[in-house]
Structures
1.
Amino acid sequence: MSAAFLIPAILLTPLIGAVLIALTGRWPNVREAITLTTAASLFALVTQMIAPIMDRQSLALTLAEPLPGLSIAFNIEPLGLMFALLASLLWFVTSVYAIGYMRGNREPRQTSFYVFFAIAICGAMGVAMAGNLLTLFISYEVLTISTWPLVTHNRNAKAQAGGRVYIGVLLFSSIGLLLPAIIWTWTAAGTLEFTPGGILEGNISTGAAGLLLGLFVLGVGKAAVMPMHRWLPAAMVAPTPVSALLHAVAVVKAGVFTITKVVIYIFGVDFLATVPLEKYLVYLAGFTVVAASVIALKQVEIKRMLAYSTIGQLSYVVMAALVLAPFSEIGAAIHIVAHAFGKITLFFCAGAIYIASKKTRVDELRGIGLRMPITMAAFTVGALSMIGVPPTAGFVSKWYIIAGAFQVESYFTLVVLMLSTGLNAAYFLPIVFRAFLTPETETPRINHGEAPWPMVAALATTALLVFAFFAFNGPLVDLETRILEVAP
């Protein structure tokens, strides 16, 4: 397929699906069949990009040029292909899960939920395929705005308050910091195109480049580097499928994807290594990893614990990208996938526990593994991946990040990884122990077993993906090594 067909088809498929979902809202079975068909169709279209990218063919398309020299353009490269594959695959799995959750919990406004979910995926596809910073910024904002109704889905006071924090932090960071960073890049380099090796070397001093990098790191609020992290725990008021969207499918991955892409294709690894301020941003990312893990250790609500865990795991990616070693850049890229599989499993399990038992707190999980063995087995898999234990996906990405730290002798990074590994084990393993090896101390609120089968099928699938990525990550690693290639 040509880029002229494939790129518009990928962007339009979720939008067409959103329209059809809205038109069939009165017939739930038809509406959900359209949701699943649209998600499957999108994944099938995205897979059509694999062969040409592996063959080093160009897939690029310019749609418009609203300002002289500034275009809305798309250009697929290995990092973007990985993100698009991840988001489209997990959209389908999350849709299966959402059907069980939304029906099992008798959620209101289910049609609008699926509509905005589809629009958000369109935004994620735009981020993945963006050929320049302008296109990425537009898609990034589409993703922000389309997910706000999902965060406020319940429309109660708590949801509205969480929604205000969500939209406030993300819009402030993007308009107040990211947009000025993009404009500064344009004035300095005369272009916003993503270019192997970067576009800023020779066009900006190293001191100014450090300030510009700081604007990007903090301006990409979706990456949740402290202090731009508050939106993420605030958004936990949303239904669990939305939490899965935020933490694994689209939003946070768009954030760390953007920072990784800026490091490699706007600054360039070689130029950024000469920027003095860059190392302080490594320290900020490392602080976020440890601080978020400590906060997660103190949480009693399952979803809030997972939210702070996500903040720490995201900064793994940011820190790895800023370490500027070849292995760490690969580790940053593949941790996006590894974290997605593990964390979506954990959120799926949290939602299944809620639907089946109405339990939301860590201290309520005693003996629940005997009632919900599949769910808690999947939770264990996700937890081990977050810790980085083989044979899980989290071990693979952590291996590359550690190797990269050794390449450049970044002992700070090694210490951060050791501390966070211990902290992750400290808040995940007691849950597993409590679920399987301690008796129930309270009568269940309902006589529950497992959650509805679509939810169990989805969480079992993502748990298997955690193992599959450990065993079959070679092709993706080979593909992502090409993000470090510099055009001659």
Note: Residues 1-270 form one domain.
2.
Amino acid sequence: MQGIIISNISNIYEVKNNRYVYKCTAKGKLKKEDIVPAVGDNVIIDVLDEHNYIGVIKEIKPRINYLKRPKMSNLSQIIIVISCKNPKPNLLLLDKQLAFIEFLKIRPVIILNKVDLLNDEIDKIYEIYTKIGYTVIKTEAKNKKGIDDVKKILENNISVFSGNSGVGKSTLINAIFQNLIAKEGDISQKNKKGKNTTTAIKLYELDKNSYIADAPGFSTFDINEIPYNELEKYFIEFNEYIKQCEFVGCTHHKEQVCGIKEALKKGKISIERYERFIKIYDELKEEESKW
């Protein structure tokens, strides 16, 4: 029987087929082959107890993609949620996430939540990222504004929500499902940082072939898998200007004849994005030098 892993708690996997959810363990053969099942995996199971819906995973189908942290596979898109205020937008984190998502060859979507706290900075963020070509959606999760737009992009996809605690991921998911499937947390008034209350990865079925997940820890992922000298590839608006650089391996920093810097002068690339690129480049280079 074939199904999809929708949750993993203490190595007990919930596998959903068209009608039922089975609680499964992994077959010893998988452990010997050092293959660990992940949420999102398409698997073949043997049913051990039809009455109590118990089975064992005997095969994992080939993955389209795989995230190491949190452990998930076969994602169609990653939805990055940032808030307009409380907590304030962390654009360095956003650009790190976008670069890593491009590296993974997964489609990114940006949600600007809490637009009831709208300010000029959010309008600027919207303009910068839509100009690059990213899908950007404005929402007020608590008032369910923009939720229909979010639902449309979720259709026929496996999507995971990412973002700092307190930006409204759980509230968005609750608004989409119109009931509570994720415990909401309050913003700490002392430090204006969110308290992360989500504790486990689980896929929730929106409709047939449409799943979403709220995955804890994803906002703190490690992008060091990206070689520092390849970072330019994942700032997608740079691509058409890289060929205008004088030297192969241009760092787009101190070189005189640089297509990226020339595009910057002409206003074709955001100065803020460029500055964050340099910061991320330097961070990756420093980390790579420690290996």
Note: Confidence is low (pLDDT under 50) at residues 183-199.
3.
Amino acid sequence: MLLQATTVQITRTESALDILLKGGWILIPLFLLSIVAFYFIIERYTLYRSYRRIDASIIDKICKAIYAGDFQQVQHLAANYNHPIGKIIAAAFENPHRPVNDIEQIMTDQSKTEVFLMEKNLGYIGSIATIAPMFGFLGTIFGVIKIFYNISLADNISIGIIAGGLYQKMVSSAVGLTIGILAYAGFYYLNTQIDRITNNMEVHLNRVLLALKDYKNCLNC
């Protein structure tokens, strides 16, 4: 018995863009979500990168000014330092004659405000990480509906009939999951950057508080 080998020749190839466009109209909101997510990720990353390093020389000058009792200089240095820690110190030393505990509480409250401002727009990224896969799943549902609709019109089942719906189903799911994963990765990474910045600020703020306590103790000697 002779076996006949049949050769299937692919006469038409499709680019990745052609396949992507088969995802249907659901790709439009997914595309918009991806633009918003990447914009906020880049915007927050750029900001956090500028906050990552604290100029230790400025903190040294502030501590020396505290030891010297020159609180006007402390305010000047802090207010002109373009970093959240500068705003925290400036707020705490608006009235340097308060008790140390009050100044420490002001630092804590102002730190919460600065962290809140740093977290601005992160909520959008987190929401997109959740919403994008749901849009992809919605595209999957529409793809299935398209498959059954085409079958009902043709009254038969064939690869050609169901191919369009399968493309929409798989492409929309893949795009939605990809955007969701990237947005979640960006969200998690940016949150770790905030933790690093806040921990670094705490170290330097403790130096400032220690200098203030030493100064107050010297006055009471």
Note: Residues 23-44+54-220 form one domain.
